[in-house]
């Protein structure tokens, strides 16, 4: 482990490598919020002048932020196929909206993860939760932080997932690696967070959730 004089953000990946989910629990919410979700972060944080959906319009959803416990821990992502109606080709976390049969938002995140990647829910050690995130498309997303031990199997769903890949956790904990991009949405310019890692471009709500995660571990 690195010396304790090192900033917290530089040591957290080493702590995850040694202690798994226990290294994260003290910095995360321990209980999922009740429905309806009250987002603490949103697409509007960087775009306060854009139109905001009213609270009752938000659709509850959840994503799993899978932290893989390796010697150098990583975060696992999916890249969506190009033919999907929503967010085609974009990098995302596995997840989706709450279904009537889901017992909870955690169950929804784990179910969607299994459907998209083949990862068994029993292999995920849930460490805690970030603040719910509101998207401009009308979703309230609960980010569920889960730790995966090495040795899991991947079976990507070819209808939804074009690629599954990992990025070192330490990369997202370094503020200098986060950019601010701009693009047009509903005829207006919007600002968003983004990360570039090798050939991958991670932006929008996925990048914002990574920033929210990073902010739980101040220097």
Could you explain how this protein is built, in words?
With 219 residues, the protein is of the alpha+beta class. The chain has one domain (8-31, 56-175, 203-215): Nucleoside Triphosphate Pyrophosphohydrolase (Alpha-Beta Complex). Helices cover 21% and strands 34% of the residues. The protein has five helices and twelve strands. Strands 1, 2, 3, 4, 5, 6, 7, 8 and 9 form a nine-stranded mixed β-sheet that branches. Strands 10-11-12 form a three-stranded antiparallel β-sheet. A hairpin with a 2-residue loop joins β10 (178-185) and β11 (188-197). The chain is globular, with a radius of gyration of 17 Å. Mean pLDDT is 91; it is low at 1-5.
CATH superfamily: Nucleoside Triphosphate Pyrophosphohydrolase
- Radius of gyration from CA coordinates: 17 Å
CATH topology value:
Nucleoside Triphosphate Pyrophosphohydrolase
Strand % is 25-35%
Helix content: 10-25%
Which structural class best describes the helix and strand composition? alpha+beta
Uncertain regions spanning at least 5 consecutive residues: 1-5
């Amino acid at each position: 482990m690195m010396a304790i004089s090192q900033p917290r953000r530089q040591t957290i990946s080493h702590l995850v490598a040694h202690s798994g989910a226990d290294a994260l629990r003290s910095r995360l919410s321990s209980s999922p919020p009740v429905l309806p979700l009250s987002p603490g972060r949103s697409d509007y944080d960087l775009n306060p002048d854009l139109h905001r959906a009213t609270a009752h319009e938000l659709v509850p959803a959840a994503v799993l932020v899978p932290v893989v416990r390796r010697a150098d821990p990583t975060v696992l992502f999916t890249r969506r196929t190009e033919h999907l109606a929503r967010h085609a080709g974009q990098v995302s976390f596995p997840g989706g909206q709450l279904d009537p049969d889901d017992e909870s938002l955690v169950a929804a995140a784990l179910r969607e993860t299994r459907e998209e990647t083949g990862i068994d829910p029993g292999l995920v050690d849930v460490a805690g939760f970030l603040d719910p995130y509101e998207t401009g498309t009308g979703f309230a997303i609960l980010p569920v932080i889960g730790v995966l031990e090495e040795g899991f199997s991947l079976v990507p769903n070819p209808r939804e997932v074009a690629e599954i890949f990992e990025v070192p956790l330490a990369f997202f904990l370094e503020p200098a690696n986060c950019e601010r991009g701009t693009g047009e949405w509903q005829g207006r310019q919007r600002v968003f967070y983004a990360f570039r890692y090798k050939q991958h471009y991670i932006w929008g709500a996925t990048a914002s959730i990574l920033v929210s995660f990073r902010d739980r571990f101040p220097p």
